[in-house]
Amino acid sequence: YPNRKAVMSAIRLFAEWNRQMISHFVSIGASGLVSVPQEKTLDMFSENIGKYFRGAGGQDSKERVSLFRMAWDLAGSSWGGRNELYERFFTGDSQRAIANTYLRMDKSEAVDIIRRMLLPGENGHPFPLPEKFGGPALPPLVEDTEECLN
């Protein structure tokens, strides 16, 4: 079975990654995205298109035009816009998902690290080692702010 935390993280992050991915396609494709010839233009001017749309490393012009068309469909067409909206909102409100992920996350190890850094060190160490590495047990966590100040 897949790791549940990894899957939930991927679901939460995909909407953001999808937008970044499309942005990268637009940056890489640049003006090539809007200068891609239509199907009829390919048939009529295939010789010139073959000459001017040839890719680096001997890439066939038809293959290159096909890649640019696919990138345009994803980045600039009405279908691409609808797809982006779908991917952005399919998993629900992204801000709520971020907040819920934070609330469900086990923060105890991070809190212990900060507490060790704030406690005075022993034997010249800048801060005590964690218990699992032979360090002293931490005193109980004080939840009440007024007790911390006294």
Structure description:
By secondary structure, this protein is an all-alpha fold. It folds into two domains: 4-103, Butyryl-CoA Dehydrogenase, subunit A, domain 3 (Up-down Bundle); 106-149, no CATH class. It is built from eight helices and no strands. The chain is elongated.
In short:
With 150 residues, the chain is mainly α. Helix content is 62%, strand content 0%.
Rg (C-alpha, Å) = 28 Å
Tell me the fraction of residues in β-strands, as a range.
under 5%
Please trace the helix and strand order, writing H or E for each element. HHHHHHHH
Question: How many domains, as an integer?
Answer: 2
Task: Tell me the number of helical segments per DSSP (H or I, 4 or more residues long).
Answer: 8
Mean pLDDT: 81
In total, the number of strands is 0
- Overall shape: it is elongated
In angstroms, what separates the terminal alpha carbons?
A: 50 Å
What fold name goes in the CATH topology slot of the largest domain?
Butyryl-CoA Dehydrogenase, subunit A, domain 3
Largest sheet: none
Query: Helix share of residues?
Result: 55-70%
Structural class: mainly alpha
CATH superfamily of the largest domain: Butyryl-CoA Dehydrogenase, subunit A, domain 3
The CATH architecture assignment of the largest domain turns out to be: Up-down Bundle
| Top CATH class of the largest domain | Mainly Alpha
Ranges where pLDDT stays below 50 over 5 or more residues in a row are: none
